Amino acid sequence: MAERLSAEARKSALAELPGWSETAGRDAIARTFTFKDFNEAFGFMSRAALVAEKNDHHPEWKNVYKTVEVVLATHDAGGVTKRDIDLAKAMNAIAGQLGVA
Amino acid sequence: MAERLSAEARKSALAELPGWSETAGRDAIARTFTFKDFNEAFGFMSRAALVAEKNDHHPEWKNVYKTVEVVLATHDAGGVTKRDIDLAKAMNAIAGQLGVA
């Protein structure tokens, strides 16, 4: 099982994850992605969903038209683990391909 | 443009929409769908996304693993319109095919 990252390890990982930040009041990380339209936003979600399902590690996310708010945490570990960092990296890579830095 | 439904028309439409209810503090309707797992939840979202895009009328929705919380309102009209009722019906039909009544 993935171990919960220390506050220091979390900060260090976030430094290499543009757009992501710690979530107030929760041991979780979050990013809001803003795309051009719903087509791109849901395209992003579809690709991220395949990654999530493959790794059996799923996001909490909310979509309103062209925005996708994502929160990542590992429930079993009670906080942020390497699995969240990996999914955040994968999401940034997918968004990057859609022109969202 | 779709016209905002009166409170009476909204209640009457909701009576024929199992699982949907009015949203507290907003002129909107909402339903939380609970599926078997992420595969089914995201499958539902994918089918509903195609309907939404085709009709150019999109949901606000949040997915956490097997649950999908949906809120529907028509921003241009400042409330619930026939377009929301139609999307809610389509979502119920898709969920029904996945065994969620």
Automatic annotation (TrEMBL), chains A, B:
<dbReference type="Pfam" id="PF01329">
    <property type="entry name" value="Pterin_4a"/>
</dbReference>
<protein>
    <recommendedName>
        <fullName>Putative pterin-4-alpha-carbinolamine dehydratase</fullName>
        <ecNumber>4.2.1.96</ecNumber>
    </recommendedName>
</protein>
<comment type="similarity">
    <text>Belongs to the pterin-4-alpha-carbinolamine dehydratase family.</text>
</comment>
<dbReference type="GO" id="GO:0006729">
    <property type="term" value="P:tetrahydrobiopterin biosynthetic process"/>
</dbReference>
<dbReference type="InterPro" id="IPR036428">
    <property type="entry name" value="PCD_sf"/>
</dbReference>
<dbReference type="GO" id="GO:0008124">
    <property type="term" value="F:4-alpha-hydroxytetrahydrobiopterin dehydratase activity"/>
</dbReference>
<keyword id="KW-0456">Lyase</keyword>
<dbReference type="InterPro" id="IPR001533">
    <property type="entry name" value="Pterin_deHydtase"/>
</dbReference>
